[in-house]
Every structure is written in C-alpha cells, then in structure tokens.
C-alpha cells in the first residue's frame, strides 16, 4: 500500500506539475541540515582568518593593491569604450546594453547524489532570487536557479546531465549549444559540422539566445576537437571556465526587473 | 526508545548531506538505509514499514531527489528485514554484513531505477560502491548503537 503511494508520488512528480508549488515549502526542512554540515568548513575558514601570519597578510595586501591598480587602469579605458560602443549602437539604432544587477551568495551545500550537479546557496526568495536566475562565479557562468525556498536556493550547474545552454564562439560569433555530460570538467558542443570555424582554445560565451542567460559571460574554453569521418558532426569538448567545484562565493545576476520581465539585453545588430 | 531512533536518523541525515569531494561521493555509505535495517532488525516492534516510508520521504526532501525515490527503496528493505530478522539476528556480524550489502544493493537498485525515470540514472554498476562500503560499515554501526542503547538502558 505504502509502496503504491510512493510509486504514485513518483509518477505524479515526474509527469505532472502538481507537486511543484508544494516543494519550496517542504524543502525548508532541508535547510538546517545544510547549515549544520557547513559549520566545519566555516570554522576552518574562521581559523584561517584568525591565524594568518602578519607577513602573509601584508603580502596578500600588496598583491591585491597591485591588482586593484591594474583593474582600475583597465576600467578607465572601459568607460571610454562603453561610451564609444553606446554611440556606435545609437548610430545603428539598436538597443543599449544594460548593466546587470548582482547579488553575492555563499555556497552552503552540494547535492549528496553524485549523479546530480546541484549546489545549495544561502540566498532564497526572501532576497529576491527567482526561478531560472543565472548564477556566475568570478571566472564564468556556473548555472541557473532551479528551485527556490525562503532562505536557500538550488542551482543546477551547467555540467549536469540535464542542462544545455546556447553559446557562441567569442572569436567569430559562431552559435552552438553546450550541453552538460555529468562530468564537472567537460561540456560538449552539439551539432558542430566539420566545416565550422572552431579551434582549440576558443572562448565560448553565453549568446543570450535562450532568453535565460545574459549575453557575453564566459562559459567554457574549447579543449579538443575530434573529426570522425564516420559521424556527421565533430565531437567538440570544452572545459567550463567557472571553477565549479571550488568556488565558495557565487553571483546572482538580476537580468529581469521586479515584474519578472526580461529587460532588453544587447542584441547584435 | 522513540527519541533515540529519531536522533539517530537526524545524525544520519547530517552525515548523508555532509559535503564531500565530487569523486568521493560514490563512496559515501548509505547511513539512512543502514539505520533502517538496524532498527527494523533489532527492534522490529518499534520500527515498522510505515516509519521507513516516512524516513524515506524526509530523506527525499533533504537530499533533493524526486519525492518517493528513497521511500520506495526503504520500504522494500524494511519489509525484507521484518520477514527475516529472526534468522539474520543470529548470524555472526560479518555474515550479517554480507546480507546488509545485498539489502543496500537492492535499495540502490531502486534508487537508480527511479533515477533512470527522471534521466539521472547511471549505466555502470558504479553506484553499488556505496553498498560495499555500507556492508563494511555494518559491524561498526551495530556495535556502536548496541553500546549506546546499553548505556541508556534501552536494550
């Protein structure tokens, strides 16, 4: 009898959407477990913070200062470039690039199931997180929000078996789709014909075509291209730019306004 | 008796979601399944199949699986335990461990079958790794829990 209930729950969850509105409320009970299991690593970080030698801190400070200087130098150029870009876009009558709003979250858990590439972040609907929101780390695109409860949210990584996203080659704007393979270090490009201009080391950026991810964030770098004469498409494997198993802090991108409408992201003229 | 069962499951859930390196997650023993086997084998009057079902549902929520995945596996395991505890309890611990390996393997098989239903199954039998580790954990769990129960005068 209970087996039947469990089975029917499974089938209902699989083939209908009836359980979807319930889950965020039920998943609140999972948050404390992730909080508690996060404590040891928090303590480790705390010790790292407290017991760093003064010399190390001074060195790190020096490095950070240098980086800041370099970045600010680049930023000065950036301002003029952005202005110039805007003028050119005005000339071509296309829409303006809008700056995305960003919120920083902290990773508090990863999915215990090795088949599923999901992480749990300590920001939820109370902080304005919504379903489908893109998530970055400092190196590139990480994934998207697939479930939100009040205080936590689950992020599906781009390497999960069930995930694919539209990308383009940064060098020449060639558009393809990158799909996850269930391996944290690999993405595969779909339907790349042998004549496409694509090289090892090419940077893939999000193309914004799926209306889900904002355009222009780095996704992966091409690692290998194998042309098999027996297959109609080349096998192209890329390595994700984001540090999917190391990043502790993630950035939520708000590319929509409060009403859930997609604000116009840049369109290629 | 009831609260020690609940406490043990809370501890097991914590261990089950404790963040591990990605490649090591295959080796994590199934603590919840081990506890369900233990409680339904050693105190069958306190831990029925309905309890196993409830525990499975909580595990589904905590571990972000489709609702019903773990409860399905756990009630099968609990049912087999309830049928066979009188015989199995008399075996030596290492013989029990082999039996537990088979039970956890059955549980894993159900999990993987449900995973296949939602496109998350794996084809290689790598998922049985954690059943092997669970088998090795079994004597440890039995000794530990028996000690605790003797200490609390609950045996």
Please provide a written account of the structure.
- The complex is a heterodimer of chains A (269) and B (155).
- Chain A is α+β, with helices and mostly antiparallel strands and 269 residues long.
- Chain A contains 4 helices and 12 strands, in the order ααααββββββββββββ.
- In chain A, a hairpin with a 5-residue loop joins strand 6 (164-169) and strand 7.
- The model of chain A is unreliable at 257-269 (pLDDT under 50).
- Chain B contains 6 helices and no strands.
- With 155 residues, chain B is mostly helical.
- Chain B starts with a helix and ends with a helix.
- Chain B has one domain (2-12, 24-151).
- The model of chain B has no long low-confidence stretch (mean pLDDT 88).
Largest sheet composition of chain A: 6 strands, antiparallel, barrel
How many distinct beta strands of chain B?
A: 0
Based on secondary structure, the structural category of chain B is mainly alpha
Query: Shape of chain B from CA axes?
Result: globular
Strand order of the largest sheet of chain A: 1-2-5-4-3-12
Which structural category fits the helices and strands of chain A? alpha+beta
Q: Percent helix among the residues of chain B?
A: over 70%
Short note summarizing the structure:
Chain A is of the alpha+beta class and 269 residues long.
Summarize the topology.
The complex is a heterodimer of chains A (269) and B (155).
Chain A: H1 2-15, H2 23-26, H3 31-50, H4 54-91, E1 101-110, E2 118-121, E3 134-136, E4 141-148, E5 153-157, E6 164-169, E7 175-180, E8 187-192, E9 203-206, E10 218-226, E11 234-240, E12 249-254
Chain B: H1 2-17, H2 31-42, H3 49-62, H4 69-88, H5 93-117, H6 129-151
Helix pairs in contact in B: 1-2, 2-4, 2-6, 3-4, 4-5, 5-6
């Amino acid at each position: 009898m209970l087996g039947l209930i469990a089975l029917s729950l499974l089938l209902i969850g699989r083939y209908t959407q009836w359980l979807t509105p319930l889950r965020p409320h039920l998943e609140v009970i999972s948050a404390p477990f992730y909080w508690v299991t996060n404590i040891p690593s928090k303590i480790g970080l705390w010790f790292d913070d407290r017991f760093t030698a003064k010399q190390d801190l001074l060195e790190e400070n020096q490095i950070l200062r240098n980086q800041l200087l370099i970045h600010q130098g680049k930023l000065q150029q950036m301002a003029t470039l952005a202005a110039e870009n805007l003028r050119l876009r005005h000339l071509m009558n296309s829409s303006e690039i809008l700056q995305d709003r960003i919120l920083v979250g902290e990773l508090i858990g990863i999915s215990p199931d090795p088949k599923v590439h999901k992480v749990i972040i300590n920001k939820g609907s109370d902080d304005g997180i919504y379903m489908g929101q893109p998530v970055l780390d400092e190196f590139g695109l990480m994934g998207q929000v697939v479930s939100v409860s009040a205080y936590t949210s689950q992020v599906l990584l781009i390497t999960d078996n069930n995930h694919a996203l539209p990308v383009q080659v940064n060098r020449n704007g060639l558009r393809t789709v990158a799909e996850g393979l269930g391996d944290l270090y690999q993405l595969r490009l779909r339907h790349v014909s042998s004549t496409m201009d694509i090289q090892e080391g090419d940077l893939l950026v999000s193309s914004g075509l799926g209306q889900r991810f904002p355009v222009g964030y780095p996704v992966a770098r091409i690692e290998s291209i194998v042309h098999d004469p027996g297959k109609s498409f080349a096998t192209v494997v890329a390595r994700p730019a984001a540090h999917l198993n190391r990043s502790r802090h993630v950035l939520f991108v708000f590319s929509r306004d409060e009403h859930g409408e997609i604000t116009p992201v840049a369109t290629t003229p | 008796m009831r609260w020690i069962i609940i406490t043990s499951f809370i501890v097991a859930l914590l261990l089950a979601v404790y963040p591990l390196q990605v490649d090591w997650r295959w080796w994590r023993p199934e603590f919840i399944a081990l506890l369900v086997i233990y409680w339904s084998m050693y105190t069958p009057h306190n831990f029925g199949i309905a309890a196993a079902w409830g525990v499975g549902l909580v595990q589904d929520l905590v571990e972000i699986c489709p609702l019903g995945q773990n409860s399905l596996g756990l009630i099968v395991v609990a049912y087999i335990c309830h049928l066979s505890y009188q015989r199995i309890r008399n075996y030596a611990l290492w013989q029990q461990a082999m039996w537990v390996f088979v039970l956890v393997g059955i549980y894993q098989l159900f999990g993987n079958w449900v995973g296949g239903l939602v496109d998350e199954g794996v084809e290689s039998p790598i998922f049985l790794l954690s059943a092997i580790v669970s088998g090795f954990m079994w004597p440890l769990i039995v000794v530990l829990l028996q000690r605790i129960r003797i200490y609390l005068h609950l045996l």
